[in-house]
Amino acid sequence: MAPLKFSGSAMFRQRIVAALLSNKTLKIDKIRENHPEFPGLQDFEASFLRLIEAITDGTKIEINETGTVLRFKPGILTGGRITHDCGLSRSIGWFIEGILPLAPFCKDPLHLTMSGITHDELDLSVDTLRAVTIPLLQNFGIYNVNFHIKKRGVPPKGGGLVELSIPIMRGSLQSVYLVDEGFIKRVRGVAFCTRISPTIITRVIDSCRGVLNDYLPDVHISTDHFKGGKDGGDSPGYSVSLVAETTTGALLSIERTAKPRRERTIPGIAGDSAMVANAVDRDAPEDVGREAASMLLEEIFSGGVIDRAHQSLILQLMVLTPEDVSKVRFGTLTAQAMETLRILRDAFGVVFRVQEDKEFLPAVPSSTKRTSVRARETYLLSCLGTGYTNVNRRVT
């Protein structure tokens, strides 16, 4: 089989996963080759490689001295009980999202205990994983996934802890046909804070409901407050995750995490550089709530049965289904999703059929005489599965 060859640092997890599932060697060069400060692989990417080594047997990884070239030879997926420190550069969700396509095809059920950051501004939070990602797996026949949040942790010090258990597949995944969006029937969410006053998340929820209740009454956001200590992580912070559920069972999610606290120096009155006070730059709770609600409305307007945060994962799973057609309706395709399509084509030889579906929505009231007609584009993506089966499982 011809090896997979890529350049650059983008889509690092998807490239590794594709190499493992297709059993092809992988070479990635020019990894941040021209970066002035941090060339080569970063600490979170090296951590992901260590996690891959832990859940496989026989995997060989070669990295050159500068870290700009990676050679990867896949081994056998073994699974088992693993404890992994995810570090402080990327959240736990970044690692879990990366290995989810691998876990059902391990030799033994995968039991992960992961520590690090549970909420940040870049990756899927543990609340989104529990409320949306795991239910999405059931569409493919992956049931009995257990996910427990033991501790929450936010940047910069983290301190979160989660436990994840994923059973193995005895056969292959199920084909999916997810094209009916339905109508939004309710919104659910979780707002949490740690090491700060619980009145903060009350203000977040109030501002969030102030926007969403103009569109539907069934909005419920639960609270989760940690005072600190053994369950509260090592840094103060707060976050809100929202999930819109449709009449057909589709789940659309967003996450808004407050930026970590930053101290800044205020010059003295005389204009010298002496520090006379410490000011804290932090998002206002009302702004976090309003932005979260606006992000959810934007996600709903973009359409589709799958939200933008899960597009890449769903595409990976669609390729692994039986040799039958799977079809899913997506909203606005992200750059990550389009790059995932290219990786899957190179690794498995699967080419997706993309069909554009344009819908004209009712006119928006306008103060001018012109009527504003909105058009929304969704995309129907379909493919023929590869019939991938779990060849690593124990034969009884």
Key words describing this protein structure:
alpha+beta; 8 helices
Task: Note down, in words, how this protein is organized.
With 396 residues, the chain is α+β, with helices and mostly antiparallel strands. It is built from eight helices and 20 strands. The strands form six sheets. The protein has a four-stranded mixed beta sheet with strand order 1-2-5-4, with helices on one face. A four-stranded mixed beta sheet has the order 7-8-10-9, with helices on one face. A hairpin with a 6-residue loop joins β4 (60-63) and β5 (70-73). The longest helix has 18 residues, at 285-302. The protein is globular, with a radius of gyration of 23 Å. The model is unreliable at 263-281 (pLDDT under 50).
Strand count:
20
Instruction: State the low-pLDDT regions, or none.
Output: 263-281
Beta-sheet strand percentage? 25-35%
Rounded to an integer in angstroms, the radius of gyration calculated over CA atoms is: 23 Å
Describe the sheet with the most strands.
Answer: 4 strands, mixed
Gap between N and C termini: 31 Å
Mean pLDDT: 90
Give the count of helical stretches.
Answer: 8
Residue share in helices?
A: 25-40%
Output the helix-strand order: EHEHEEEEEHEHEEEEHEEEEEHHEHEE
Q: Strand sequence of the main sheet, in spatial order?
A: 1-2-5-4
Secondary-structure-derived class: alpha+beta
Query: Shape, please?
Result: globular
